[in-house]
TrEMBL record, chain A:
<feature type="compositionally biased region" description="Acidic residues">
    <location>
        <begin position="24"/>
        <end position="34"/>
    </location>
</feature>
<dbReference type="GO" id="GO:0031901">
    <property type="term" value="C:early endosome membrane"/>
</dbReference>
<dbReference type="InterPro" id="IPR005329">
    <property type="entry name" value="Sorting_nexin_N"/>
</dbReference>
<keyword id="KW-0333">Golgi apparatus</keyword>
<dbReference type="GO" id="GO:0030027">
    <property type="term" value="C:lamellipodium"/>
</dbReference>
<keyword id="KW-0967">Endosome</keyword>
<feature type="compositionally biased region" description="Polar residues">
    <location>
        <begin position="124"/>
        <end position="133"/>
    </location>
</feature>
<feature type="compositionally biased region" description="Polar residues">
    <location>
        <begin position="38"/>
        <end position="52"/>
    </location>
</feature>
<feature type="region of interest" description="Disordered">
    <location>
        <begin position="1"/>
        <end position="87"/>
    </location>
</feature>
TrEMBL record, chain B:
<dbReference type="Pfam" id="PF09325">
    <property type="entry name" value="Vps5"/>
</dbReference>
<dbReference type="InterPro" id="IPR001683">
    <property type="entry name" value="PX_dom"/>
</dbReference>
<dbReference type="GO" id="GO:0005829">
    <property type="term" value="C:cytosol"/>
</dbReference>
<dbReference type="InterPro" id="IPR015404">
    <property type="entry name" value="Vps5_C"/>
</dbReference>
<feature type="domain" description="PX">
    <location>
        <begin position="27"/>
        <end position="174"/>
    </location>
</feature>
<comment type="function">
    <text>Involved in several stages of intracellular trafficking.</text>
</comment>
<comment type="similarity">
    <text>Belongs to the sorting nexin family.</text>
</comment>
<keyword id="KW-0653">Protein transport</keyword>
<keyword id="KW-0813">Transport</keyword>
Length: 525, 407
C-alpha cells in the first residue's frame, strides 16, 4: 500500500507549493505535514506530492491518484485497523461556499459536499476533478466566500469486550473566523454524533429546518466489532459507518443555519465532549420516529390551509412518492451488490477450476491458453469485487442517505402543520373566551369579567404569536426545501457520474484483459 | 428499445453458433452426406425437429429429403450405436441432452402470476426477457441435436449404419417409445454393474503405453471438465442475475425520471437509458459466455465420457482376451475341449485387436477435435468479450460526456 503509484503533480497553477504549516491543532501530532496548499484558493484542491512512502503521516486533505489495480480489496488493513490514511480522498470536492452576508440565505452553489468514499478502490482520476475545481474557482471568485472542509477518518477500536467502541478522528479545515484555528482535529465516537443530532433536532426542527439524520445504529455490526471479529464484514461495517458519518457531518456544516449553532462548533473543536447520554436509547432514526409518530396524527387530517398551501401539499406528495421510488431503487441496488459479490466468488472458483483443467490438458499450447484464461478470470474476480464496492459505497449509500433525508424533510413539513394547528387551536380558544366574555357582559358579573378580559388579551397575544410562528416556519420550510432540492440534485448528479466513471474504468480494464488473452487463444494448435 | 449503433450480437443460428459441429467433424464438409436441422417446433412438452438430408449416396431413394423427429428418436439411435458390438472400437458421439424448458416455463408462469404487482412497462419488459430466454434455450437444444447428427454423418463407419439411414429417411414415426419403468430399472442396474466392472477393468495395467497414458489422462481430464462445467454454469447464472438487477434499476430510474421535468429528472432519464443499453450488453456477455465456454465444457464432458466408455470396452476386451488365453492354456494342459478354447481365444483376440486399432485412431482424432474446438471457441469468446466491453465503454463514455456537459 505504501508503494502505491506515485502521484504526478497536477497542472493546477500554484497547487504545487507545499506550505509549511504555521498553526496546527494540538492533537495533530503530524509535524511537517502539508495539509494545505498555500495559495489563496479557498476551494479545496490540494494536490500533494507523494507521501506514500509512509514516513510522513497521513495527509488528510490531499487528493491522491491511486492506481486502481493495486489493493483493490475493500478491507484495506493498515496498522490503524481499517482505514488507510494514505489513501484518502477527503476533500476533493468537499468545499462549502458560505456567504457571510446573510447566514440564513440559501447557501451558494455548493460543490458536492457529499459522499467521499475514501476507500482505495475508486478514486476519480485527478484529471477529472481538476477542471471542476477550476470551474468552481471561476464561479466563486466574485463571492465573499469562505470554505470549510470536514473529514472523518482513522477509525480506531478503543477498549475491549462489550465496552469497546470505535473512535473516529474528525478533522476540520476552515477559514471561518468563528473557529479558533484553521485546522484542527478531535476524536469522537458514534454516540457523540447522535448526541449532536439530538441537540440540533431539539433546537432547530421546530423552526422547520431540515436536519440531516445520522447513520443508523447497528447492534449486530457493533457487536461483531466489539467481540473482535477480524473479518471483512466487520471491516466493511466500520468503513461504511465512517463514510456515512463523514457525509453526515459534511451536510451539517453545509447548512448555513446549523453551522452557526454553537453545538456544532463545540462538536468540531472541543477536545473532550461530555458523553452524550440517552443516545443509547435514542438513535437518529428513533428520534425521527418520535417526531413522525407524533405528527402522523396531524398529517392524517387532510386540511387545506390556504391557497399558498397548494405548493406545500404538492411538494409533500412529491417527497412521499420520491421516497417510495428511492426505497425501491435501493432494494434493487442492494440486490445488485449481492449478485456481484456472488459473481465474484463464483468467478474465483471457476478460475481455479480452469487452471486445473489447463494442467490436465496434454496439448501444450491449449494448456497454456487455459491457464491464461484462468488468470483472466482471476482478474475479473478482482474487477467484480471493486465493482460491487462501487455499487455499494457510491450508489446504495447515496440512496440510503436520501431515503433518510426525505424522512427528515417530511418531518419538516409536519412540523409546519403542527404549528398551523396550534395557531388554529389558539384562535378557537380565543373565540371561546370572547363568547364567555360576551355572556358575562350580558350576565353582568364584573369581577369575572375582568378575568375574562385578561384571558382574552393573553390569547390574543398567543394568536398573534402563533400566526407569526406559522408564517416564519412556512418561509423557513420553503427555503429549506428549495435548498435541499438543489443539494439533492447536485448530489445525485455528481455521485451517479462518479459511479458511471467507475463502471467506465472497469470496462477499460476488461478490454485490456481480453486483448492480452486473444493472441494466446489464437496461438493454440 | 433499439440500440443505436450497437450490433445485436451473433444470431443464434449463425455460423458462430455452429461451433461444435463445424469443428468436431472434418472441416471439409462432405458432399456425399450432409445433415442439418432445418426447422424445429416447440409444442407443449416436446420439440419436433425437422431433419434435413442432402446426399449423393445410392442408399437413399432421393437426393434431398426431410423427416420430423423427436428427442426420444435421437436417443434410440444413440443407444443402438452403443449396443452394437461392431462399433465397440469407436467413440460413440454423445447423445444430445433432453430439451429442458421447465425452468423457463416456470419463470413465465411466475411472471403471469405477479402481473398485478408491477407496472405495465415492467411486465412487458420482463415478458420479453423471458421469451428471449426461452428462445435461446430452444435454439441451443436444436444446435445440440444437430451436432450429434453431424458427428455421425462425418464418421466413416457410423454414417453407413442402417439405423442411421432409417432415422434420416423413414418419414413415418419410428414408434420409438421412451423406456418404461422396468427398462429404466434395467438400465440403472446395467450402469451399476458397468461402473463396478469399469473399476476392475481400469485396475488392469495395460501393456500398451499409449492406452495406459490415455486412461490416466482421460480420467483426470473428465473429472476436471466436469468441475469446470458446473462452476462455469454457476458463474454465468450470477452474471445473468446481475444483468437482471441492472434492468430493474433502469426501470426504477425511469419512473423517477418521469415524475417531473426538473433537471434531476432529465438526468435520471438519461441514466436510465444508459443502463437499459448496458444491461442488454451484460446479458449478451453472459449469453456468449454460456455458448462459447459453458456449452463447450459441457460438450467435452460428454465426449470425454464417450472416450472413457471406449477405453472401458477395450479394457473389457483385453480382460476377456487374457481370460481366454488362460482358459486355452488350461484346456491344453488337461487336453480337453482344446478346439473350443482355441476358437474362443481367437475370437477374443480378433475383437481386442480390432478395437485397439480403431480406438487408437479415435482417441487421436478426439484430441485433434478437442484442441480445434477449444481454439475456435476461446478465440470467439475473447473476441466477443472485447466487442462487448468496447461497446459498453463507448456507451459509458458518451453518456458521461453528455451528463458532465449538462451540469
Amino acid at each position: 500500500m505504501a508503494a502505491s503509484s506515485p502521484r504526478n503533480p497536477p497542472p493546477l497553477p500554484g497547487a504545487d507549493n507545499q506550505d509549511p504549516l504555521s498553526e496546527m491543532a494540538d492533537e495533530d501530532s503530524d509535524e511537517g505535514e502539508d495539509i494545505f496548499v498555500g495559495n489563496s484558493n479557498p476551494v479545496a484542491e490540494s494536490f500533494q506530492t507523494d507521501t506514500a512512502n509512509g514516513e510522513e503521516p497521513a495527509d488528510l486533505f490531499s487528493e491522491e491518484e491511486i492506481s486502481t489495480t493495486v489493493n483493490s480489496s475493500i478491507t484495506t488493513t493498515k496498522s490503524n485497523g481499517v482505514h488507510s490514511d494514505n489513501e484518502n480522498d477527503l476533500f476533493a470536492e468537499a468545499s462549502v461556499e458560505l456567504s457571510m452576508e446573510n447566514p440564513s440565505t440559501i447557501a451558494r452553489e455548493n460543490p458536492t459536499t457529499t459522499a467521499k468514499t475514501s476507500g482505495a478502490e475508486f478514486t476519480p482520476s485527478r484529471t477529472q476533478t481538476q477542471p471542476k475545481s477550476i470551474e468552481q474557482l471561476e464561479e466563486d471568485k466574485d463571492e465573499d466566500s469562505f470554505d470549510m472542509d470536514v473529514a472523518v477518518t482513522n477509525p480506531e477500536k478503543i477498549g475491549d469486550g462489550m465496552n469497546a467502541y470505535i473512535a473516529y478522528k474528525v478533522s476540520t479545515r476552515t477559514t471561518l473566523p468563528m473557529f479558533k484555528n484553521r485546522t484542527f482535529s478531535v476524536w469522537r465516537r458514534f454516540s457523540d454524533f447522535l448526541g449532536l443530532y439530538e441537540k440540533l433536532s431539539v433546537k432547530h426542527s421546530l423552526n422547520g429546518c431540515i436536519i440531516p439524520p445520522p447513520p443508523e445504529k447497528s447492534i449486530v455490526g457493533m457487536t461483531k466489532v466489539k467481540v473482535g471479529k477480524e473479518d471483512s464484514s466487520s471491516a466493511d461495517f466500520v468503513e461504511t459507518r465512517r463514510a456515512a458519518l463523514e457525509r453526515y457531518l459534511q451536510r451539517v456544516v453545509c447548512h448555513p443555519s446549523l453551522l452557526q449553532d454553537p453545538d456544532v462548533r463545540e462538536f468540531l473543536e472541543r477536545d473532550e465532549l461530555p458523553r452524550a447520554v440517552g443516545t443509547h436509547t435514542l438513535s437518529g432514526a428513533g428520534f425521527l420516529k418520535m417526531i413522525n409518530r407524533a405528527s402522523d396524527a396531524v398529517s392524517k387530517m387532510t386540511v387545506k390551509i390556504s391557497d399558498s398551501d397548494a405548493w406545500f401539499d404538492n411538494k409533500l406528495q412529491e417527497v412521499e412518492s420520491e421516497e417510495l421510488q428511492l426505497r425501491k431503487l435501493h432494494a434493487v441496488v442492494e440486490s445488485l451488490v449481492n449478485h456481484r459479490k456472488e459473481l465474484c466468488g463464483n468467478t474465483a472458483v471457476f478460475a481455479k477450476s480452469m487452471a486445473m483443467l489447463g494442467n490436465s490438458e496434454d496439448n501444450t499450447a491449449l494448456s497454456r491458453a487455459l491457464s491464461q484464461l484462468a488468470e483472466v478470470e482471476d482478474k475479473m474476480e478482482t474487477l467484480h469485487q471493486e465493482q460491487a464496492a462501487s455499487d455499494f459505497f457510491i450508489l446504495a449509500e447515496l440512496l440510503a442517505d436520501y431515503i433518510r433525508l426525505l424522512g427528515a424533510v417530511r418531518g419538516c413539513f409536519e412540523q409546519r402543520m403542527k404549528t398551523w394547528q396550534r395557531w388554529q387551536e389558539a384562535q378557537s380558544t380565543l373565540q371561546k373566551k370572547r363568547e364567555v366574555e360576551a355572556k358575562l357582559l350580558w350576565a353582568n358579573k364584573p369581577d369575572k369579567l375582568q378575568q375574562a378580559k385578561e384571558e382574552i388579551t393573553e390569547w390574543e397575544g398567543k394568536v398573534t404569536q402563533y400566526e407569526r410562528d406559522f408564517d416564519r416556519i412556512s418561509v423557513t420550510v420553503r427555503k429549506e426545501f428549495l435548498r435541499f432540492e438543489k443539494e439533492k440534485s447536485k448530489d445525485f448528479k455528481s455521485q451517479i457520474v462518479k459511479y458511471l466513471e467507475s463502471l467506465l474504468q472497469s470496462q477499460q480494464r476488461l478490454v485490456k484483459f481480453w486483448e492480452a488473452f486473444l493472441p494466446e487463444a489464437k496461438a493454440i494448435g | 428499445m433499439m440500440q443505436e449503433g450497437l450490433d445485436d450480437g451473433p444470431d443464434f443460428l449463425s455460423e458462430e453458433d455452429r461451433g461444435p459441429r463445424a469443428v468436431n467433424v472434418d472441416l471439409q464438409t462432405d458432399a456425399t452426406l450432409q445433415v442439418d436441422i432445418s426447422d424445429a417446433l416447440s409444442e407443449r412438452d416436446k420439440v419436433k425437429f425437422t431433419v434435413h438430408t442432402k446426399s449423393t449416396l445410392p442408399n437413399f431413394k432421393q437426393n434431398e429429403f426431410s423427416v420430423v423427429r423427436q428427442h426420444e428418436e435421437f436417443i434410440w439411435l444413440h443407444d443402438s450405436f452403443v449396443e452394437n458390438e461392431e462399433y465397440a472400437g469407436y467413440i460413440i458421439p454423445p447423445a444430445p441432452p433432453r430439451p429442458d424448458f421447465d425452468a423457463s416455463r416456470e419463470k413465465l408462469q411466475k411472471l403471469g402470476e405477479g402481473e398485478g404487482s408491477m407496472t405495465k412497462e415492467e411486465f412487458t419488459k420482463m415478458k420479453q426477457e423471458l421469451e428471449a430466454e426461452y428462445l435461446a434455450i430452444f435454439k441451443k437444444t436444436v444446435a445440440m441435436h444437430e451436432v450429434f447428427l453431424c458427428r455421425v454423418a462425418a464418421h466413416p463407419v457410423l454414417r453407413k449404419d442402417m439405423n442411421f439411414h432409417v432415422f434420416l429417411e423413414y418419414n413415418q414415426d419410428l414408434s420409438v417409445r421412451g423406456k418404461n419403468k422396468r427398462e429404466k430399472m434395467e438400465d440403472f442396474f446395467k450402469n451399476v454393474v458397468k461402473s463396478a466392472d469399469g473399476v476392475l477393468v481400469a485396475g488392469v495395467k495395460d501393456v500398451d503405453d499409449f492406452f495406459e497414458h490415455e486412461k490416466t489422462f482421460l480420467l483426470e481430464y473428465h473429472n476436471r471438465v466436469k468441475d469446470a462445467s458446473s462452476k462455469s454454469d454457476r458463474m454465468i447464472r450470477s452474471h445473468k442475475s446481475a444483468a437482471d438487477d441492472i434492468n430493474r434499476i433502469a426501470s426504477t430510474l425511469y419512473t423517477l425520471g418521469t415524475q417531473d421535468s426538473t433537471d434531476v429528472c432529465k438526468f435520471f432519464l438519461k441514466v436510465s437509458e444508459l443502463f437499459e443499453k448496458t444491461r442488454k450488453i451484460e446479458a449478451r456477455v453472459a449469453a456468449d459466455e454460456d455458448l462459447k465456454l459453458a456449452d463447450l465444457l459441457k460438450y467435452y464432458l460428454r465426449e470425454s465420457q464417450a472416450a472413457k466408455d471406449l477405453l472401458y470396452r477395450r479394457g473389457r476386451a483385453l480382460v476377456d482376451y487374457e481370460n481366454a488365453n488362460k482358459a486355452l492354456d488350461k484346456a491344453r494342459a488337461k487336453n480337453k475341449d482344446v478346439l473350443q478354447a482355441e476358437t474362443s481365444q481367437q475370437v477374443c483376440c480378433q475383437k481386442f485387436e480390432k478395437i485397439s486399432e480403431s480406438a487408437k485412431q479415435e482417441l487421436i482424432d478426439f484430441k485433434t477435435r478437442r484442441v480445434a474446438a477449444f481454439r475456435k471457441n476461446l478465440v470467439e469468446l475473447a473476441e466477443l468479450e472485447l466487442k462487448h466491453a468496447k461497446g459498453n465503454l463507448q456507451l459509458l463514455q458518451s453518456c458521461v460526456g453528455v451528463l458532465k456537459g449538462d451540469t
